[in-house]
Amino acid sequence: MGSAYFYLEPLLVLMTLLRSHYKNPVVFALEYSLIPDSAFPTQLTETVAGYEFVLALAAGDASRICVAGDSAGGTLVLSLLLTLAQNQRKESMTPGYATLLSPWTTLKTELHQNTTSDFLTADALEKYGGQYAVNTENLSNPLVSPGCCTDLARWRKASPLNGMYITYGAEEVFAQEIRSFTKRLRKAGIGVSTQEEPGQIHAWVIASLFLEDSLKERTTGMRELVKAVVANIKPL
Q1: Phi, psi torsion values for 116, nearest 5 degrees
Q2: Phi/psi at 72 (nearest 5 deg)?
Q3: Could you read off the pLDDT of 71-119 as tens digits, one per residue?
Q4: What is the pLDDT of residue 2?
Q5: What is the chain's alpha carbon radius of gyration, rounded to the nearest angstrom?
Q6: Is 168 exposed, middle or buried (0-12, 13-18, 19+ CB in 10 A)?
Q7: In the predicted model, is pLDDT for residue 70 greater than 60?
Q8: Each residue's pLDDT tens digit, 139-166
Q9: What DSSP character marks residue 200?
Q10: How many C-beta atoms surround the C-beta of residue 114 within 10 A?
Q11: What is the DSSP letter of 130?
Q12: Which of the 8 DSSP states describes residue 39?
């Protein structure tokens, strides 16, 4: 989920909510390398290593793991799933569930549309996406830009055991792209639950924790996320 320092408050909220359902939940936040200091495949390699570490903590029971990421973290989660699907040990390594918050599914696409509300812009995304991909060729590589994968069989193989939960803001730059991506996953037969929050911006679940007035408003997105996790990874 990006920087564990930036996400300290959201992670604490997440842990608090999880503890009301699970006896001993574990939240692992990956501090992956950032551009321009590092680029593909560094971040994906770190994500795979982080997942293998968590899998060891879970005593090899991947069905107890929910992978999660927002924005570029969502990119890495999807890249991780595609990478695991290529692995011969795929069945034993497939996570139980995935939650994606405003995922950046495709690094460069005309579906990125500026809005009057969102703080992200299509031009900035093109710049940062290019830095991560390193070269133009990589922009069409599904392990770099997962949304470029149109192979439905590949997505079926990559899907977590119980599917995915995807939430995003209706007013964010990624909205059209995410709608298109979720439609593709459903066409592949993958169970995908979505929440398109009216009037909200990119990474609204995280932003709300800092911007909304009441406790209820601040935690609405996180509570919905946890609700989806609990429904798909049953407490023991």
Answers
A1: -75, -10
A2: -65, -25
A3: 999 999 999 999 999 885 556 899 999 999 999 999 999 999 999 999 9
A4: 47
A5: 17
A6: buried
A7: yes
A8: 999 999 999 999 999 999 999 999 999 9
A9: -
A10: 13
A11: H
A12: -
**Residue 59 Ramachandran class (φ > 0 left, ψ -120 to 50 alpha, else beta):** left
Q: What is the pLDDT of residue 85?
A: 92
Angstrom distances, CA of residue 108 to CA of 59, 75, 182: 38, 12, 17
- pTM (2 decimals)? 0.95
**What values do phi and psi take at 201, rounded to 5?**
-105, -175
SS3 content of the chain, % helix, strand, coil (to 5): 50, 10, 40
Give the 3-state secondary structure of residue 174.
coil
Reference 39, options 6, 86, 72; nearest CA is 72
Report residue 22 as tokens. Answer: 């699970």
Q: Which two tokens stand for residue 8?
A: 């300290």
pLDDT at res. 87: 80
Residue type, 124: A
d(CA 214, CA 165): 25
Residue with tokens 């997440």: 14
- Coil vs helix vs strand at 138: helix
